[in-house]
Amino acid sequence: MSKRWTILSFSFCGWKGGHPCNAPSHHDRIARIAGQKKVTRNVNMEKLRNGYLFPEIGTRQMVHMEKYPNAEVISLGIGDTTEPIPSVITKAMAEYALALSTREGYRGYGAEQGDKRLREAIAEKMYGNMGIQASEVFISDGAQCDIARLQMLFGSSMTIAVQDPTFPGYVDMSIIMGQTGEYDDKSNKYKGIEYLRCEPRNHFFPDFSEVPRTDIIFFCSPNNPTGQPASREQLKELVEVAKVNGSIIVYDSAYSSFISDDSPRSIYEIPGAKEVAIEISSFSKFAGFTGVRLGWAVVPSELSYSSGFPVLRDFDRIVCTSFNGASSVSQIGGLACLSDEGYEAIKDVISMYKANAKIIVDTFTSLGKEVYGGVNSPYAWVHFPGQKSWDVFTEILEETHIITVPGCGFGPGGEGFIRVGAFNSRECILEASRRLRSFFG
Amino acid sequence: MSKRWTILSFSFCGWKGGHPCNAPSHHDRIARIAGQKKVTRNVNMEKLRNGYLFPEIGTRQMVHMEKYPNAEVISLGIGDTTEPIPSVITKAMAEYALALSTREGYRGYGAEQGDKRLREAIAEKMYGNMGIQASEVFISDGAQCDIARLQMLFGSSMTIAVQDPTFPGYVDMSIIMGQTGEYDDKSNKYKGIEYLRCEPRNHFFPDFSEVPRTDIIFFCSPNNPTGQPASREQLKELVEVAKVNGSIIVYDSAYSSFISDDSPRSIYEIPGAKEVAIEISSFSKFAGFTGVRLGWAVVPSELSYSSGFPVLRDFDRIVCTSFNGASSVSQIGGLACLSDEGYEAIKDVISMYKANAKIIVDTFTSLGKEVYGGVNSPYAWVHFPGQKSWDVFTEILEETHIITVPGCGFGPGGEGFIRVGAFNSRECILEASRRLRSFFG
């Protein structure tokens, strides 16, 4: 910052005049300086280890397919939906798209916060009796993108806690935003992040008395990857912890539509949660919108900083400045999802994935494996005690041509597990089951 | 961070056991602590002044419409496209959307970096002979969103320069990322940002010898709001300045499709630019995709940090971690825009907006105003010497029911100007012209 701009040559800018750089010594000075002052890489980016989990798995899948060009690879890996979207939804999108070619139907920018009708529909359909207002719902292009925007909102000074294991986006965005220290090879953790161990012995709910307070608690339920939904009692404790410690919960309910027992589908089912929790969610797994891109965040008006300033106002500013709204076509699709007809049709697709998950759970259970999740979630969490996740991943891929996800990709607490997803056709799930039984049986 | 989690009550979590908190004194301690440790607001968010410009204008428009419910307000304000999208493009989107309901046509997640075909089409159609590879093109949901992602890439330690006036997103994201100091009420500038004054007397190109070096130079051409494209000679100087000073240019070419003279449409028309420049661009103004949401960023493989590490690899990581790709429906629309038929149809729409801009320029010129831009850009930049931009904005709105944009919203260098946009139907532009002639004439 101490140096003035240095300009190498002005042969082409005589029209401007006034540059103090015609002395012969100028070029010597330039030559000395040039190349010495390139931009330094962001130190936070340097802290990131390995590739981001899911692209890394994609790369390994491609390598495998090149090695075995005739193998029929079955992906139970990245949580990518496979079933067609009910036509009541795609018809709405198609009609809207076509109308963009008419003067009456053309629409340009929508509100950055999203289409008012969609905000209202989400408030009503997803949060019926929980007191969430449309003005507290922000439409987005997906939960992963909202994690990034929330981290921009929080800034580098925040301390965070995450479940261990959990979706890696929380940690990776925390690193990028500068909230963490370096990676510690011994613990496989980033310094400055509190890892809330969730495992069978504690019913996949952390013991908060064991870890320091943090400003933010990322909490995903049903958890990705363990497939476990938090119970009402557990969430009551979570809200209480946040309230007493002045923490903000970021509650990720992207898989809530898979819940079929009495576990809460939203953190706002817990009294008092509006004062301490943001919720992010998505149409991706709910409606097969992984490619269409649509999600939402709820920032209650009751949630405030220590000064009393509402978090909602800052999040609104972040959304208006760093985002320009989700695609209008996707939003129309979202509205159709929440129509009575759309909602019923979606439920059938979810039921089908849930039945897939049951097949996976039954398969591994019959093979004598400890299996968690897979009931209120499209993910089964399978334990291979004493083995390394990547080794299990590689062995299953080599022997059965099935893609899974290594548990260690979700945090050190995932080591020894793999995540097996139910997003595939019934035919592929049954074929995967046969292959797994044949290999492990 | 020094404190352990405090838990108020365990009546509901007896199943967990092991909490060291049953002593009566516990609740006293909680009561003392509770409320004292709420999360502190991000100091960077506190630095932001006023609302973000465009939502602020939207609010003022709404207030005006409530005040004059019968007035026919004409918006020449926010740069929102108004003309229908050619049907060859919307048909492609509609067909794709409908096919999502079929097993053959269903697609889930795409690559975070975008559809390979679209990356290739952009590399070929937009950068034909400039040596840009498809792997250097990242599909996005718009240029504003890419500015945010680029700022995440850069991090808080970078120093930045912006044209003054310019699109406010660069500065606002810089503040949010913590690159700046406080706002200085005297200069109307944020500390830590270099403002490159662009005004009639310097042909709207900054004198780089007058300002300190920065890591990043945001440069928008044709500039929003001045409507001025940089000439080839000016861009040669810009690239040279970046090269010698080791700066990275973020070149925003969102309005390049409006260029009809020999000004470069891309920074990569300048030899050597690939070593120093990122380019961001958009389908918003090019194809009327303001609501559909689609853009792209080019990060050349030659661009590296001082360590030699390629910027492209870090940007790829940012995209994979904070973003999940643009909507697949929008991307199919983008592909159709770049088909021969789509491209020709789009050109007609742009010509129509350009003819609108000429009407605006002619109107203000005939009224004796100094008018800039409006030739290679949809924006005319009108000077009202000695007046405040917001006063001019308010006066025009009150007297003619026309929305413009106050120049000071684009930086202190915009004071005394208003931006008048050509995005409207011919009928509305002609009516606006009549009203303006009547009021100022």
From TrEMBL, chains A, B:
<keyword id="KW-0663">Pyridoxal phosphate</keyword>
<dbReference type="InterPro" id="IPR015424">
    <property type="entry name" value="PyrdxlP-dep_Trfase"/>
</dbReference>
<keyword id="KW-0808">Transferase</keyword>
<keyword id="KW-0032">Aminotransferase</keyword>
<dbReference type="GO" id="GO:0009862">
    <property type="term" value="P:systemic acquired resistance, salicylic acid mediated signaling pathway"/>
</dbReference>
<dbReference type="GO" id="GO:0008483">
    <property type="term" value="F:transaminase activity"/>
</dbReference>
<comment type="similarity">
    <text>Belongs to the class-I pyridoxal-phosphate-dependent aminotransferase family. LL-diaminopimelate aminotransferase subfamily.</text>
</comment>
<protein>
    <recommendedName>
        <fullName>Aminotransferase class I/classII large domain-containing protein</fullName>
    </recommendedName>
</protein>
<dbReference type="InterPro" id="IPR015422">
    <property type="entry name" value="PyrdxlP-dep_Trfase_small"/>
</dbReference>
<dbReference type="InterPro" id="IPR015421">
    <property type="entry name" value="PyrdxlP-dep_Trfase_major"/>
</dbReference>
<dbReference type="InterPro" id="IPR019942">
    <property type="entry name" value="DapL/ALD1"/>
</dbReference>
<dbReference type="GO" id="GO:0030170">
    <property type="term" value="F:pyridoxal phosphate binding"/>
</dbReference>
<dbReference type="InterPro" id="IPR004839">
    <property type="entry name" value="Aminotransferase_I/II_large"/>
</dbReference>
<feature type="domain" description="Aminotransferase class I/classII large">
    <location>
        <begin position="72"/>
        <end position="422"/>
    </location>
</feature>
<dbReference type="Pfam" id="PF00155">
    <property type="entry name" value="Aminotran_1_2"/>
</dbReference>
